[in-house]
Specification:
With 225 residues, this protein is mainly alpha-helical. It has two domains: 3-97, Death Domain, Fas, CATH 1.10.533; 139-221, Death Domain, Fas (Orthogonal Bundle). It is built from 14 helices and no strands. The longest helix is centred in the last third of the chain and has 16 residues, at 178-193. The chain starts with a helix and ends in a 7-residue tail after the last helix. It comes from Nothobranchius kuhntae. Residues 4-82 form the CARD domain.
């Protein structure tokens, strides 16, 4: 059921920074789904496709769709709620609970995520999130790992993942929920490692040293069963 057109546009614009952060993890995936739904013109598709960075690509994609028409904006909101998008981008769970009619642009979605993120995480069975170890680590796997890292996350970030203290401080400022901070840290590691960010590599790092995680918490990264 379609929402009020102007309200949908206001809602998407208010959530734009968060959506850019989340969707930049796989900008091409989002672009192809948006194109399949004809949410942007062929000319706009080519413009977005040739953006140099994922962040720029997602930013332009959102701008083109939101500015095109209220129908396109509604189509984007519906797309973000689709199972394929929700599965690929776990942090999009908050979109399902956004209320177009009651949402205020000034109201942060943190309260919604605080209620929903833990509930949604419970339905992601870690042992079923499998990889052959040589594949690049997925968003779902990172989220499952994030659940297992406690208050020593900063030490793990600095000593194990080689993430700078400045970056960790920025992550802490940007996210109020613990699991979101850890998830953001792991995504940062994946971005830095690029094609080396495999599930097996992450498992190896988190299995060594004083900050090693328990095998039962991370073995799903290398087990296919």
């Amino acid at each position: 059921m379609s929402e009020e057109p102007a309200a949908v546009i206001r809602l998407l614009r208010s959530q734009k920074p968060k959506l850019i952060e989340i969707l930049s993890a796989d900008a091409d995936f989002v672009l192809q789904h948006a194109d399949a739904r004809a949410l942007l013109s062929p000319h706009s598709y080519q413009q977005v496709k040739h953006c140099r960075t994922p962040g720029e690509k997602v930013t332009d994609l959102l701008d083109h769709i939101i500015q095109r028409s209220p129908e396109s904006a509604q189509g984007l909101l519906d797309l973000l709620k689709e199972p394929d998008l929700q599965k690929t981008f776990p942090m999009l769970y908050f979109v399902k609970d956004l209320d177009v009619h009651t949402h205020s642009p000034e109201k942060d979605v943190t309260s919604v995520k605080r209620k929903e993120v833990f509930k949604e995480l419970e339905v992601i069975p870690a042992k079923k999130i499998c990889s052959n170890g040589s594949s690049l680590v997925t968003e779902k796997q990172l989220m499952s790992v994030a659940r297992s890292i406690g208050r020593s996350w900063r030490e793990i970030g600095r000593q194990v993942l080689n993430i700078s203290s400045v970056k960790l401080e920025q992550i802490e400022e940007d996210h109020s929920l613990h699991v979101e901070r850890v998830f953001a840290m792991l995504r940062c590691w994946r971005k830095l490692q690029r094609d080396k960010a495999t599930a097996a590599h992450l498992h190896s790092l988190l299995s060594q040293g004083d900050e090693a995680l328990l095998p039962e918490d991370i073995d799903f990264l290398i087990n296919s069963d």
